[in-house]
Design brief:
The chain is α+β, with helices and mostly antiparallel strands. The chain has one helix spanning 76-117, and strands spanning 3-6, 16-20, 26-30, 44-47, 57-61, 67-71. The chain folds into two domains: 3-71, no CATH class; 75-122. A three-stranded antiparallel β-sheet has the order 1-6-5, with no helix packed on it. Strands 2-3-4 form a three-stranded antiparallel β-sheet, with no helix packed on it. A hairpin with a 5-residue loop joins strand 2 and strand 3.
Length: 127
């Protein structure tokens, strides 16, 4: 759940992207329109807030035009639970690859011999 940090009450206009700049103030930039047209121009400061950011939070302008923050969703915590499954999948893939290369190796050797001796390699039925 997001918590409000600063009440700015910014009214939004169409065609502008509103964001929290490096100084912690609300700024806006012209949005690019389709067809390769760029937004253009320098971002404009809309409201001074001077918000100090904390690590691990996502800061945004909410629907009321105020500055809000929410904890960032980090995938690292979830990954640890499924790590065993991922390793198992990697192992089976490695085994499968090893089997394939083991099957191909004799064929490659036969082809190489045939090239040097001038004979056609013996055909083998595929599985």
């Amino acid at each position: 759940m997001a918590t409000k940090i600063e009440r700015t009450g910014v009214r939004r206009e169409r065609g502008w992207l509103y964001f929290l700049d490096k100084q912690g103030d609300v700024s806006r930039a012209k949005m690019a329109v389709g067809g390769g047209k760029h937004g253009g121009g320098k971002p404009q400061k809309v409201a001074k807030a001077g918000v100090k950011r904390e690590e691990g939070f996502l800061y945004f302008i909410d629907k009321d035009g105020d500055i809000a923050r929410t904890p960032m969703a980090r995938a690292g915590a979830r990954r640890s639970k499924t790590r065993g499954k991922a390793r198992k999948g990697a192992r089976t893939t490695a085994r499968r690859t090893a089997r394939r290369t083991a099957r191909k190796a004799p064929r490659k050797v036969a082809k190489r011999r045939a090239r040097t001796t001038g004979r056609a390699p013996a055909r083998r039925a595929r599985r």
